[in-house]
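Quick note —
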Amino acid sequence: MDRKTRERAFEPFFTTKEVGRGTGLGLSTVYGIVKQHDGYVSLYSEPDRGTTFRIYLPAAAGAGREEEALLPAVEGGHETILVAEDNDMVRELIAQVLSRYGYTTVRAIDGADAVEQFRKTPGVDLLILDSVMPGMNGRQAYNEIRKIRPDIRVIFTSGYTKDIFLAKGVEEGDLNFLQKPIMPEVLLKKVREVLGDGMDAG
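Predicted structure written out below.
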């Protein structure tokens, strides 16, 4: 990266990709997650030589105690959840948190892949869809999947705030929403809320 690109690398919605190929939310999401954990990210980059990111996080308080004592006191489950997110790191973080609490996860890299994975996977109980993805976005994927199963439950995620997200055509009554970056306990509580109360997202 050149100097100007390095200076803007962590800005929300800044991207060097062509229109429709990137959202500019990947690095800003990573930065937000690291900052929430009192850490920081360093960036070193030179044109034609490569780029290195380093993430520094403080040691966990009470390290050495039983691992279970450090986990948030939230309920898990055994349902199957399809996670569609075009940022590899965010997708893996969400899937790992869910798997750790007993859920079976199916991963999709974008909206079109989400529809394909849903068709291939019997028994999906919940969709977690990033609202902004290249090609078919989260809402479009949800509309296609509802043609297959109208009662499928959904949680939308977005780097946008809720009011901006609503302004993009999603009605309040349809909305189970989590703003990124998402803390694990917030994710788990929302998942249990949507799966456990019999609520239909649409």
